[in-house]
Amino acid sequence: MKNNNNDKMDKKEQQLQQFVRQNEGKIMTSNEGVKISNDEDSLKAGDRGPTLIEDFLFREKMAHFDRERIPERVVHARGYGAYGEFELYESLEELTMAKFLNDTAVKTPLFIRFSQVAGSKGVNETNRDVRGFATKFYTEEGNFDLVGNNIPVFFIQDSIKFPDLIHAVKPEPNNEIPQGQTAHDTFWDFIANNQESAHMAMWIMSDRTIPRSFRMMQGFGVHTFRFVNKHGKSHFVKFHIKPVLGLRSLIWDEAQKLGGADADYHRRDLWENIENGNYAEYELGIQVLEEADEFKFDFDILDSTKLWPEEDIPVRMIGKITLNRNVDNVFAETEQVALHPGNIVRGIDFTNDPLLQGRLFSYSDTQLYRVGTNHQELPINRPVCPFHNNQRDGASRYIIDKDRIAYHKNSLADNTPYTVPGSKGGFVTYPSLVDGRKVRETAESFEDHFSQARLFWNSMSPVEKDHIMQAFSFELGKVQNISVRQQVVNMLGHISTELATVVATALGVEVPKVPESQVKKSSPALSLFNTKHSPKTLKVGVILESGFNGRETNYLLEQWKKVGLQPVIVHDELGVVKGTDGIELKVDQSFLTGSPLLYDGLYVGVSPNANENFLWKTKSFLIDTYNHFKPIGASEAAAPILESIGILGKPGVLVDQNPQTFSKEFIDAMTIQRFWQRV
């Protein structure tokens, strides 16, 4: 086995390069290679006559155009991806036979696709929605796909209900409204009448579903899988992916406005940071459970509406994921990537989780429909290891099979391709015990729908609880049917009387008189507030007027860049803005092309003597930034501007009276990011 790290990454890249084509400076031809002399006029009978059907160049061009869009995904249609690599910290040989989890010298190439669940391909990226977090590991033993979300639980327990869930969450069929949102009758009617969704409803109304960035978002495998080691011993596992930059979210008003300011906010953030060398980094972790402990908890470990509390079953960090290369073509790679939870390698196996079991059929069936019979041969989906079998033909077959034998067993090809016993690396399914009658029933251990929803509520900070109450009030306020509103509020009453009372009051429905969950336990790991944060890659809008303090501003910019902050120079015009001491700075955005929504903090180097229009726009940026609880810094000359709008001296609002101390204070404020005391 090759252990050269560069060779491992190059193998996938070299394979992809065989399919890369650059048109610049090349002669135009048809797909059959015929040189084209005129690509602007179709073949006609006379210059004003009808187009002739014999125009094969027209037919090829138009027929291809007519088919340039494959069916978009029913769910997770809006997606964006990037390439990277996985590095293992220490061998997991005691847990699994999977080679990429055994050898720390190997870097495993991978591709991650982030996505939204509910909206279509054109929906804006900051809607409140579950985010897909799907990873394809190109291992030496084949592809392993970890197809998860940014939430550790799901709406339903059995996959047979998945079509019902998606029919309910999608735009209502009578008017195709609303797009990419859950704030409507059919979705909440589904939730109220399928109360296994209560736990998930708490998560989707939390700040988790309006992430600040793909790079600051957590990933979960959702399901319980198995690890199997070389001795045949099995452990139950759950997968976690945690961002190195820490978890950050938008706030609701900010997310709403960002959808208009930049509908591509998340993909632009990922693309630009990778292009600039600010690679997205995560740690892959696992929770591990002995088979003997399967029934020791007050929840069923195979129930996908339940999580494993990290305080009870700690997450063990096993490796580093780095996204370091953007795609060359979004359609060919991000759109055509075929992810499937059934793609596993030796040493990883399935459990009887009924949601997972259904996905094993649904995902492969979907990819066959969307991308085609031979989707696994596409560059983005091909494994890095050799693959041979007797599958033949089908639409868009890329492989040219030169042999005449396409069956097993055979004598004409010495019974090849041949199978490999498990002792020599062949995949062997873990022989778990299966026993029981054929039934259509839900296990009794799956029937508690409120305990973990209450656990989640108990784990939230006061600010997060307030956001959840506001989210329910907004979403249900969009529901037209009063009965549906009341049903959902009644469900919330089983989770928290406080939550149900606030929401009921906001909606004008009755406060429910139902028994509240008595769970007292909390899980601090579930709160976004209990995560380490870094200032790296956060954007600072720097508003400067002509004649700004050049030396002082330059010093601040240099200090901020050292810790990874990204200053964005804002002025009323593009070009350059001139300060004192001969300092000139390139203007990145004007008031027109920029927006306070796009920055994580604001610095103002403007005096009250600036022209009226400049001052008005500066104050507008300051007010939006302040209302979104973000840090604000100002030169000493700008302090009167802060005072004029009533924010001077407020939490997270700093004035530069000493550049050395101010620089550090502002960096600390950017790291904190939100100053909720302003409420």
From TrEMBL:
EC number of the protein: 1.11.1.6
Annotated catalysed reactions: 2 H2O2 = O2 + 2 H2O
Positions contributing to heme binding: R73, R113, F162, R359, Y363, R370
Needed co-factor(s): heme
Basic and acidic residues bias spans: 37-47
Domain Catalase core: 29-416
Superkingdom of the organism of origin: Bacteria
Pfam families: Catalase, Catalase-rel, Catalase_C
GO terms for cellular component: cytosol
GO biological process terms, semicolon-separated: hydrogen peroxide catabolic process; response to oxidative stress
The entry's keywords: Heme, Hydrogen peroxide, Iron, Metal-binding, Oxidoreductase, Peroxidase
Alphabetized GO MF terms: catalase activity; heme binding; metal ion binding
InterPro entries to which the protein is assigned, alphabetical: Catalase, Catalase_AS, Catalase_clade2, Catalase_clade2_helical, Catalase_core, Catalase_haem_BS, Catalase_immune_responsive, Catalase_large_C
Disordered as annotated region, ranges: 22-47
CDD domains: GATase1_catalase (cd03132)
Active site: H76, N149
Residue location of crosslink 3'-histidyl-3-tyrosine (His-Tyr): H340-Y363
Gene3D superfamilies, per the entry: 1.20.1370.20, 3.40.50.880, Catalase core domain
Similarity field: Belongs to the catalase family. HPII subfamily.
Summary of the function given for this chain in its UniProt record: Decomposes hydrogen peroxide into water and oxygen; serves to protect cells from the toxic effects of hydrogen peroxide.
PANTHER family xref list: CATALASE, CATALASE-B
Listed name of the protein: Catalase
